[in-house]
């Protein structure tokens, strides 16, 4: 069983990875609120919403003209799973690489307590508050760095 402090550390490592990789690999989310959530988490790189008015096929083709690898980070409810599947197919159709492992990792770590990207910052704040920061200094350092 993963403790809250271990879960917090693993989620912060996922966020750090998203931040680093988003410099060159767009993170694909469902809507504008998800983009804002990524910013609230400290992800400053490329975050794209599929909510552009284009079909997913056109969305994937347009992005693949600029980038060759993507991070799929849709919600982990039924609709988000369906959109992730459509994105995988769209990227495969234009010979672009995608990664949805971080999406699965977040879903596994949040154990049904979180269903969407939009709620991720609030979830992380609650988790941070429940973990004693004195016994987990890395978390405190990351929080201070993000709030800068």
Task: Report the CATH architecture.
Answer: 3-Layer(aba) Sandwich
User: What would you call the structural class?
Assistant: alpha/beta
**Total separate domains:** 1
Give the CATH level 1 class.
Answer: Alpha Beta
Report Rg.
16 Å
Spatial strand order of the main sheet: 2-1-3-4
Task: Give average pLDDT, whole number.
Answer: 88
Low-confidence stretches: none
Biggest β-sheet description: 4 strands, parallel
Helix proportion range:
55-70%
Q: Tell how many strands the DSSP assignment holds.
A: 4
Strand content: 5-15%
Q: Could you give the order of the helices and strands?
A: HEHEHEHEHHH
By DSSP (H or I, 4+ residues per run), the number of helices equals 7
Assembly annotation? single chain
CATH topology: Dna Topoisomerase Vi A Subunit, Chain: A, domain 2
Shape: globular
Describe this structure in words.
By secondary structure, the protein is of the alpha/beta class. The chain has helices at about 5-20, 30-40, 55-65, 80-95, 100-110, 120-130, 135-145; strands at about 25-30, 45-50, 70, 95-100. The protein has 7 helices and 4 strands. Helices cover about 55% and strands about 10% of the residues. It has a single domain (about 5-120), classed as Dna Topoisomerase Vi A Subunit, Chain: A, domain 2. Helix 1 (about 5-20) packs antiparallel against helix 5 (about 100-110), helix 1 (about 5-20) packs across helix 6 (about 120-130) and helix 3 packs across helix 4 (about 80-95). Strands 2-1-3-4 form a 4-stranded parallel sheet.
């Amino acid at each position: 069983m993963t403790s809250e402090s271990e879960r917090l550390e693993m989620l912060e490592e996922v966020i750090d990875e998203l931040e680093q990789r988003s410099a060159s690999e767009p993170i694909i989310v469902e809507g504008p609120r998800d983009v804002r959530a990524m910013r609230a988490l400290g992800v400053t790189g490329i975050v794209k919403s599929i909510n552009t008015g284009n079909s997913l096929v056109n969305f994937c083709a347009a992005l693949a003209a600029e980038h060759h690898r993507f991070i799929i980070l849709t919600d982990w409810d039924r609709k988000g799973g369906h959109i992730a599947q459509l994105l995988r197919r769209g990227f495969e159709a234009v010979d672009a690489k995608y990664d949805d492992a971080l999406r699965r990792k977040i879903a596994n770590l949040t154990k049904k307590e979180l269903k969407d990207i939009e709620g991720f910052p609030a979830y992380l704040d609650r988790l941070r508050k429940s973990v004693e920061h004195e016994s987990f200094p890395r978390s405190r350092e990351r929080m201070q760095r993000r709030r800068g």
